[in-house]
Amino acid sequence: MTVGTDTRGAGKPDLAIELAGVSKSFGPVEANRDIHLAVRRGTIHGIVGENGAGKSTLMSILYGFYQADAGEIRVDGRPTPIPDSRAAIAAGIGMVHQHFMLVEPFSVLENVVLGAEDGRLLRPSLARARDALRRLERDYELEVDPDAIVGDLSVGAQQRVEILKALYREARILILDEPTGVLTPAEADHLFRVLAALRDEGKTIILITHKLREIMAITDAVSVMRRGEIVRTLPTAETSPAELAELMVGRRVLLRVDKAPARPGEVVIEARRLSLTDAGGARRLRDVSFEVRAGEILGIAGVAGNGQSELLEILAGIRPATSGAALLRGRPLDLSRATNGADRRARGIAHVPEDRHRRGLVMPFAAWENACLGYQDEARFAARFGLLDRDAIRAAARADIARFDIRPPSCDLKAANFSGGNQQKIVIAREMDREPDVLLVGQPTRGVDIGAIEFIHRQIVTLRDRGKAIILVSVELDEIQALSDRILVMFDGAVSGTRRAEETDERELGLLMAGIDPKAKGAA
Amino acid sequence: MDPETLLQLAGSSLRLATPLLLACLAGLWSERAGIFDIGLEGKMLAAAFTAGAFAAVTGSAWLGLLGGIGASLLLGLLHGFASITLRGNQIISGVAINFLASGLTALVGQNWFHQGGLTPQLSGAARFEPITLPFAAALSQVPVLGPVYAGLVSDHNILLYLALAAVPLTWWALHRTRFGLRLRAVGENPAAVDTAGISVTRLRYGAALIAGLLCGIAGAYLSTAMAAGFTREMTAGKGFIALAALVFAKWRPWPALGACLLFGLLEAIGIRYQTITLLGWTVPVQLMQALPYILTVVILAGFVGRAVPPRAGGRPYVKER
Amino acid sequence: MRTSPPRWADLALIPAVNLLLALLVAGLVVILIGENPLRAVELLVTGSLGSSYGIGFTLYYATTFVFTGLSVAVAYHAGLFNIGSEGQAQLGCLGVTLVCLALDRTHWLLVLPAAILAGAAFGGAWAFLPGWLQAKRGSHVVITTIMFNFIASALIVYLLVNTLKVPGSMSPESRTFEAGAHLPFFHEMLAAIGIRVSRTPLNLSALIALLAAGLAWALIWRSRLGYEMRALGHSEPAAVYAGIDPARIIVIAMVISGALAGLMALNVIMGSQHRFVLDSVGGAGFVGIAVALMGRNHPAGILLAALLFGILYQGGSELAFEMPDISRDMIVVIQALVILFTGALENLTRAPIERLLARRGAG
């Protein structure tokens, strides 16, 4: 393990934050393992890593939301236990959460003052906060109307309120968790100017992100996390997006999936300029177009949150699109409602959702009941008088269990009581059961053990070889590479590039995922 | 309608609105903190009984009031324990409290006083008598102002004035104090309060206790001020009308006063006039009785201005992983 | 891997412990009143189960509670808390009454199907609007059903006072039906085959209640609609994924729930009172909440819980007769305690029991 600064021994006074040997587990899952991290005062320190690498857990420990199982936190060189948020605030740490901790019907002033009031009466606190906001606004370009209702503000302005909250509590160390995920590029640029101004004032900033462009643009140093560990800390000036992408993904044993070359047939499903603007006015998808042929796997790569999930849900009929069209064998799909799931299945589109806990399974249902989820209205499962044919469903469930080696092989066990890999097998078995023309798969192996991963991959390839069109969304780049025939990379809601799987490598894909097209001229 | 009738009707509306107002404000405190409270009726009933019983036994309306508040606080704590500490279902807890109060008041009442569930008739110091405000007699000769002052403003019991004072007090406490700010925040986004280093549990218990206090006063008003003793089921759905008024007022104190006065007026009209003829159509008295509920459904449906309850209402707070 | 407690603990042990706690507290209340709780239990049991008279009344009450308990349970499986069974039952009474008044010169065999339809339709209609408002406008079904309860009682009072009342009569009730709209009593049916039992209001609708419990069971656990309701009740995102339209299921579940509540009128109106009086429902809708909670929203559990409440209601009357200090209000207290301990305070016992079982399982 390489660490930029030696963190062992006594704390150093020029360090704002030091973590020494911090570990945290949730049950059997090790979210953070023996973390050593040193953040210099007056710098912007980036932390990058893929989803689930343990970045957010680490920062929650620093903010007192979780307790570390082992290790020490030093703030300004002094060992500082942080049992709760109050202690973090007292230690001068402020946090801007990914999901804002704001009270929407409150004014900006009220939000800023909440928890940091001067006395029992509000008026003096509000007056002081108003003065403070005016000062902060002048110093750092943090302009917001103090009397505006937070719920009416744009997402960018709401984020400024979160920063103001921290600064009002005299935070010297500011943690931002994926701050640009919800921002427009202009808002993100604005945020970076604010952060630079804060650093120049001597504040320390920790920026958690998975966007390499941001790391390169704004940070002084960067730590890369992978699978709960910090694998490297580097001065930003001495690294490159390519190196960071490689470190993030890691030189893992490449997943080998034996597959014959694809023999694509005619176009089965295509998207034409699909766009989505969410309720907050943010553009989640921008003119996404592609086509998938029979007997072909299209992998959609990208860092989480760049529009892949929304795209999959629109095609699956459980999220409406704002504009654009999708065609199945040349005939349009209804994109206007969020309740088209049954219609899609009837037309031969199956869907393995990204989140099996919330969507793919009804957790308190037994395995056999989950075996017909989504297909409950099909004739093969129907008995007379609107009843379900339990024998048929159980037979299907038993067949799934045998075919996919689901363990324990019990129809009657609740879905919640299976392991993650076996839960996922229940979902995939069900969706593949009916030989769909199109299979939409999201994160097929998230939280799945290695043995099950290989099995699931083989099943997906087999389905392709039977002439089906498959759209695969995954944040695991090696999974995308191992399975896909063509790879479409998404960045910021748009397609940043499409490559043939055999003609690209992880370096190029990593750059595309960061929104940089190495083949385009003048790329940053 | 002559001025005197009008004045009487107004006075009667005010008296009928008072228990609604107190209970409505109780619901407001609880629900603004994120705890649904359909147990207003039960708390009020328990308080009405205890106040009536204590006043009868001690001969003091004030001790009665204290007893009533105590009973209501106990039920408030029970609701808090179920919904805050045990993270149970707040609706079920409210339903249970309503039945508990309904059964216990009748059972204990019969067992204690042997008058068919009634408490003994109260008189003198055991009741809150109307207070004549200063200058009522002197001003009574002044046209308009005099009769209004003497007939409507003056001559009510202390609890009614207390209820009216509770409106600005509630508004002030919610909007002008640190406690109020935190309490409103916990009803909208408890996570924001938690990350600011404030205890969600303590705030919510605080709200449950204030709701208990106000329901206690409301109940005491029924048995020791408006009537002269407790009768079975004397709340007669007032706790639910208060709940309706709360929705109607969109969980705000001043509109709550307006809503309760309106519902009080409807009740007063219903009591005074058995038949009302409007444009040649006789309005059934039952329609008048149902009007608060009908109006509330219309408001709830969002056809006339949307009633948005506090966002975190009804959900126990669980720190997210 | 997350493990839930064994099925027997979930279905039997935890409810039993909670019920026991409720009864213990009720026993404390009896002691405080100055009576002997064991003697009270004895009176309760002999009063309700000690004679054919007691059993008849017990089953009569239980019949009503089966309908209202099922009503609450069906809505619950779709994730809805219907506290409006009381009002829906009142409307059901209206529907059954209208049919009986119109057809009571024919034969009960003709009247019964029409009465079933009318009771279900009126009760269902009264639940439709709260369901629709929840589905389409997001108005919380708990609040709207409370409001609809009060609107229903105002409506019923109006109709009984102004429309249905017998001209010249002072009491707000409909006229008594002719024999053609009386469901056969059990004591009559048994007499026909030579068995003599006491005259009680127990009537044919007890069998209809059993049938309804069977149908509700088939609906919830065997039918496609029930599957979709339960999926929605557990997880709305999963239901949407499965192509289920939440708005449609919410409305349907509420209508079925209201219809079941409305059917209680068969027992009370057509089976026993033979007329519609002001207090025909008398809180049975609310008892349904306790019955559903105690029966864990399963029809079999509801039959048992309804029987228990039947025992409480009948035995409670006998108890009040023998021990005047324990009035019938004791039943309401017990009902409250059952709701409290099996519903609101469920986690009080659930967490310790689950921990205990987990430790034993591990050790």
Automatic annotation (TrEMBL), chain A:
Where found?
Cell membrane
GO MF: ATP binding; ATP hydrolysis activity
* PANTHER family, alphabetized: CARBOHYDRATE TRANSPORT ATP-BINDING PROTEIN MG119-RELATED, GUANOSINE IMPORT ATP-BINDING PROTEIN NUPO
What superkingdom heads the lineage? Bacteria
Among SUPFAM superfamilies, the record links this protein to:
P-loop containing nucleoside triphosphate hydrolases (SSF52540)
Classification via InterPro entries: AAA+_ATPase (IPR003593), ABC_carbohydrate_import_ATPase (IPR050107), ABC_transporter-like_ATP-bd (IPR003439), ABC_transporter-like_CS (IPR017871), P-loop_NTPase (IPR027417)
Q: Which UniProt keywords apply?
A: ATP-binding, Cell membrane, Membrane, Nucleotide-binding, Repeat, Sugar transport, Translocase, Transport
Q: What is the species of this protein?
A: Amaricoccus solimangrovi
Primary site of residence: membrane
UniProt entry tagged with the keyword Oxidoreductase: no
Task: From the Swiss-Prot or TrEMBL record, give the protein name.
Answer: ABC transporter ATP-binding protein
Any matching Pfam family = ABC_tran
Task: Please state every residue range assigned to the domain named ABC transporter.
Answer: 17-252, 269-517
Keyword Ubl conjugation appears in the UniProt entry: no
Bilayer topology reads: Peripheral membrane protein
The Gene Ontology CC terms held by the record are: plasma membrane
TrEMBL record, chain C:
Q: Where are the transmembrane segments?
A: 12-33, 53-76, 108-129, 141-161, 202-220, 249-269, 276-294, 300-321
Gene Ontology MF: a single term:
transmembrane transporter activity
A Gene Ontology cellular component where this protein is annotated is: plasma membrane
Recorded hits in PANTHER family, A to Z, give: ABC TRANSPORTER, PERMEASE PROTEIN, GUANOSINE ABC TRANSPORTER PERMEASE PROTEIN NUPP
The organism of origin for this protein: Amaricoccus solimangrovi
The record's subcellular location field reads: Cell membrane
Query: Keywords of this protein's UniProt record, alphabetized?
Result: Cell membrane, Membrane, Transmembrane, Transmembrane helix
Per UniProt, what is the membrane topology? Multi-pass membrane protein
Broad class of where this protein is predominantly found: membrane
Name this polypeptide is given: ABC transporter permease
Q: Does the keyword section mention NAD?
A: no
Q: Would the keyword DNA damage turn up in this protein's UniProt record? A: no
